[in-house]
């Protein structure tokens, strides 16, 4: 138990640190400590990862709210709506609501996991291709209909994201697509490059014209939650939990869908949208572990690392081992969440100083953050020259389409192939 507590602390501290670095998150945290994790038992590995997962989902909202730059794809909604509140002088309200909603999402996910875990294998039987196709289709429709730009732009960007994800050599079939005989393209397009070039660059360009609107935020001096955000937080927790359990979708889609539902059907939706998205993000982050633990399906880059670490240590992923060897981990989640709640809340009392610093030096700050994100991605990616080339090209394209809402590219990158594969399987099943 003491050893498990130690790795919970190490994982949480790692998550706090790497969550504040845009583009880092659980993958970079796990990759950095990979050599140290190879010598510990599988239970401790998973305890470390759960701590990282929870902590990064709290602290990646720092750059999202302050600068409108998401720490990862799941924080896009927070970057949009949370930063908008920040510029209105309501940064403290965005932070406090974000912290509370994140905790609600964690609590909801833990409670539901405790309730479902003994019979969780039966739950996965419902997650067939037909259901996944319906859910992804609903997401695509929402992305298209709820956009604030011309539909053709949204559809074009969504397809472009799917094409970018598909470029390269398929490691299973050894067939290449979209490479045009260029050897570099067989490596594929790194997602971090897509995120930086086609989302962050346009967003930073837009922010240059709006930084003058930043006013001094109130200091957070008491625990309070935004008015009438409990319902949207619970909605986000529910949507996020079930989305997180679907391989290939995870909390990225849960965050987006819950925020769009709130914007469509709730009054005064900006703060409620942020609450729903963050609750979904944290709920889905935990439930996304279930396909890995029960079905041995890692569905994120960081989970792939954890999967191989635990396999090397002799762990077999199945329901029996999860219940027997890993069930104790879930009881460490509440104290980790409480610690992250405290850190993410009171750590934001520097908002007023940061606001004025950003207002005065926003160009320098944005360039600095962009440099940090790019450097982290370059450090991780093995083929440095290809990373630099693809980043330069996509940054130019991102600048050229800076007036567009490029969010659909991110969702297209994740959802297009998954949608096509499930649609084909569904048509075969129904034929």
Produce the secondary structure layout.
Blueprint: H1 2-19, H2 25-32, H3 34-37, H4 42-59, H5 61-67, H6 76-87, H7 91-116, H8 120-124, H9 129-145, H10 151-166, E1 168-169, E2 176-177, H11 191-207, H12 230-244, H13 250-265, H14 269-287, H15 289-295, H16 301-312, H17 319-326, H18 333-346, H19 351-380, H20 384-400, H21 407-430
Antiparallel strand pairs: 1-2
Helix pairs in contact: 1-2, 1-4, 2-4, 2-16, 4-14, 4-16, 4-18, 5-6, 6-7, 6-14, 7-12, 7-14, 7-18, 9-21, 10-21, 11-19, 11-20, 11-21, 12-13, 12-14, 13-14, 19-20
Descriptive report:
This protein has 431 residues and is mainly alpha-helical. The protein has one domain. It has 21 helices and two strands. It has helices at 2-19, 25-32, 34-37, 42-59, 61-67, 76-87, 91-116, 120-124, 129-145, 151-166, 191-207, 230-244, 250-265, 269-287, 289-295, 301-312, 319-326, 333-346, 351-380, 384-400, 407-430; strands at 168-169, 176-177. A two-stranded antiparallel sheet has the order 1-2. A hairpin with a 6-residue loop joins β1 (168-169) and β2. α6 packs antiparallel against α7 (91-116) and α7 runs parallel beside α14 (269-287). It is globular and about 55 Å long. 49% of the residues are buried.
């Amino acid at each position: 138990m003491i050893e498990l507590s130690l790795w919970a602390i190490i994982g949480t501290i790692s998550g706090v640190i790497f969550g504040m670095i845009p583009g880092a998150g659980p993958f970079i945290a796990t990759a950095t400590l990979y050599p140290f994790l190879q010598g510990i038992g599988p239970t401790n590995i998973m305890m470390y990862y759960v701590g990282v997962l929870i902590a990064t989902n709290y602290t990646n909202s720092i750059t999202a709210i302050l600068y409108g730059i998401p720490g990862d794809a799941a924080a896009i909604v927070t970057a949009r709506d949370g930063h908008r509140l920040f510029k209105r002088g309501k940064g403290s309200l965005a932070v406090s609501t974000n912290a509370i909603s994140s905790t609600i999402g964690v609590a909801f996910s833990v409670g539901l996991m405790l309730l479902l875990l003994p019979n969780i294998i039966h739950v996965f039987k419902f997650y067939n291709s037909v259901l996944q196709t319906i859910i992804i289709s609903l997401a695509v429709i929402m992305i298209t209909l709820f956009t604030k730009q011309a539909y053709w732009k949204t559809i074009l960007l969504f397809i472009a994201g799917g094409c970018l994800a598909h470029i390269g050599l398929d490691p299973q079939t050894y067939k290449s697509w979209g490479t045009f005989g260029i050897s570099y393209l067989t490596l594929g397009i790194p997602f971090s490059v897509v995120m930086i070039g086609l989302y962050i660059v346009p967003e930073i360009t837009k922010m240059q014209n709006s930084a003058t609107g930043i006013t001094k935020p109130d200091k957070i001096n008491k625990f309070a939650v935004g008015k009438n955000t409990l319902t949207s937080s619970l909605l986000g927790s529910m949507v996020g939990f079930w989305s997180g359990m679907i391989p290939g979708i995870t909390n990225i889609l849960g965050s987006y869908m819950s925020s769009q539902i709130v914007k469509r059907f709730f009054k005064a939706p900006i703060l409620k949208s942020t609450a729903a998205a963050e609750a979904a993000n944290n709920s889905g982050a935990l439930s996304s572990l279930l396909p890995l633990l029960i079905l041995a399906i890692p569905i994120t880059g960081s989970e792939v690392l954890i999967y191989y670490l635990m396999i090397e240590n002799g762990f077999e992923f199945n329901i029996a081992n999860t219940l027997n060897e890993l069930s104790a981990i879930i009881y460490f989640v509440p104290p980790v969440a409480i610690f992250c709640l405290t850190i993410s809340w009171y750590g934001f009392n520097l908002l007023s100083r940061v606001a004025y610093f950003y207002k005065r030096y926003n160009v320098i700050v944005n360039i600095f953050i962009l440099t940090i994100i790019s450097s982290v991605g370059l450090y991780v990616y093995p083929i440095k020259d290809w990373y630099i080339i693809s980043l330069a090209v996509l940054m130019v394209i991102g600048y050229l389409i800076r007036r567009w809402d490029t969010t659909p590219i991110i969702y297209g990158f994740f959802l297009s192939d998954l949608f096509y594969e499930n649609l084909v399987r569904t048509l075969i099943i129904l034929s």
